[in-house]
Amino acid sequence: MSNYLDGLFSVTGKKALVTGGATGIGRMMAEALVLAGADVMICSRKAEHCEHVAAELNQLDAPGTAEGFGADLSSQEGVDAASKEVAARTDRLHILANNAGATWGADYETFPRSAWDKVMNLNVTSIFELTRNLTPLLVAAASDDDPARIINTASVMGIMPVADGCYSYSTSKAAVIHLTKILANEMTSRRITVNAFAPGPFPSKMTAFATASESGASATGAKNPMGRIGRPADIAAATLFLCGHGGSYVTGTILPLDGGYLVHTSEDSLFPEVE
Question: Where are the domains of the chain?
Fold first, then answer.
């Protein structure tokens, strides 16, 4: 049975990059890949945090490894520097997880232009630029039998017409979804699959206002059709499906990891009101 499962979900020996990989969904993805045998680079703005998380992952007695470095993807210079760092560490990249992102919440009447620009720049523009820069490394790793893989982190808020005050965030995630489909169409000839997650609430720094406390997580989960918030295993299983051999025929797909929000239309918000 283990050989059968390995044939479907193993990523042994693959080289991966997870942006925003030190916290939240990014860390869940990175840990899953390390446990399944990949050599994973994680990056975010704080190099020391990434190095610390990489050290923790390397203590899991897993078949894969982790290494961390700092990267500020909010600027062209930062994207280019991160791309050069990756190229210095590997000559091929089997998996690219574009997960780094930001959000901003404010009232409709006072929502600032600076917040709009910041969120759209990091959540959308950096995905395009980093993917474009790293495409030669992805092509080098790709084959007819085992394509290279790109996973973009979108959100159910990019599908639902709901902002919860996060106007630029929801709009940016809708753009990520459309960009995913565009790139999937263009990358098939290069033997690269491009898919996206559309998560509902998971524990992370971004959702800490609603999920950090036990009571907050419970209240947020109570609004979900499945009665809970997301768990690391939900991200891990989806990651290994798309990155393992069993996912090699899937591209251009937006995978909701949302507990049923998208098919449960009575709710107009993902989060409870916070005092």
Answer: 2-263
**Residues with Cβ within 8 Å of residue 161, at least 6 apart in sequence:** none
Model confidence at 266, pLDDT cuts 50, 70, 90, reads low
- What mean pLDDT is predicted for residues 54-69? 97
Closest CA to 129 of 82, 94, 69: 82
Q: Topology of 2-263 in CATH?
A: Rossmann fold (3.40.50)
The alpha helices in the chain, defined as continuous H runs, are: 2-9, 24-35, 47-58, 76-89, 113-120, 126-141, 167-187, 208-211, 214-222, 232-243
What pLDDT, in 10s, does the model give residues 191-204? 999 999 999 888 75
pTM greater than 0.90 (yes/no): yes
Closest CA to 242 of 134, 152, 179, 124: 152
249 is catalytic: no
Q: Which of 4, 108, 167, 169 is an active site residue?
A: 169
